[in-house]
Amino acid sequence: MNKNDFVELLEYNQWAKERLLNSLAQVKPEDFEKDMHSSHGGIKGTLFHMVNAENIWVSRLEGEQIIPLDISQLKGVQEFRSVWDDLDNRLSGLIAGVNDEQLKSRMEYQDSKGNKYFQPRIWAFSQLFNHFTYHRGQIVALQRQLGYKPVNTDLIGFYSEKRS
Predict the structure, then answer these.
(1) Band of the pLDDT at 163, cuts 50, 70, 90?
(2) Region for residue 132 given its phi and psi (left: phi exceeds 0; alpha: psi -120 to 50; beta: otherwise)
(3) What's the predicted TM-score (pTM) here?
């Protein structure tokens, strides 16, 4: 993969995020908060996990200290959108500022348990986009279980819409 691939994945991710958040704006507050006993509880817990993971990885890629997010500050879709948009702007800046050689360069970071890692930056970017796709699928399943009709966030849908 190269920088152009990540630029396109960023564009896809932002497209899918907007579609997902717009569909979640239709979800009743009690369903948004409901614990569905999924990996991260329910819709809100899974969204928080996604936003928090982006916060962690973007901070690592920037070489900055991770400032934890507080789920109690994110009451509904609009609050999630605001925080997520800020994170996406940071991620966009990272991708814009990196070249193909830098993508291959190693970065050092620590996980939440203090374990140190030295990995190519390309792995971190790949992890981010793959992670989002995985959890969007979980949210789609939760929406279906709650009786909502979720939107299509598949990559092929993005390509079809982008090229039409």
Answers:
(1) confident
(2) alpha
(3) 0.93
